[in-house]
Amino acid sequence: MSYPRIISHRGGGKLAPENTLAGLELAARLGCRAVEFDVRLTADGEPVLLHDETLRRTAGVAGSVLACTLRELRACAPLVPTLDEALDLCRRHRFWVNVEIKASKGRESEIGRHVGQWLAKHWDGFGVVSSFSLECAIAARRCMPQGKFALLTTSLPEDWRCRCAEIRACAVHLAARHADPMMSAWLRQAALPWACYTVNQRWRAERLFALGCAAIITDRPDRWRPEEM
Question: Would you name the residues annotated as active-site residues?
């Protein structure tokens, strides 16, 4: 598949509140063609954009996202958008989207299935789905037979071929510090494009592109011109 070279991390990277509509709007103003954001489920089954399992860091209150209804979540964290609101904005800006599903321990399959069903019904599929939880990704894949999935990992595991087969991955996403020529050669032989996170320096991005990286996920999309994205 074809990847945009620059993917704005958590909406607008470090330039706006993470995983918010404001961040997505900022990415659009910068000329970004692609964004990444995190999705969690509320207690009443609403997919929302949030990275952490709790609200402590982003909203300053105790409590799990999974324990809050959407109404309760909005009362303490009004900037948190629903996945529906975020994807509507992405469609208007024609963003390629990396939807990263965040799974909670013990509920990986349930969350993957629920988000996968939602995406299959409401999303046009312009982008990829990923999750650090293989169990979550497998459950989502079963609900999205036509969707595009990327294997998300810190470093390339020994069984990466099996994992890619399980979710029928069309790409691999991994931490930039673990990218090396051997890994690049393996993925090239498998015809799998790969992307790296989180890359905020141009010089580092250029080294990765020279190694064969298809895209970088960055907190500083402002360091690239629109025509470079």
Answer: 9, 51
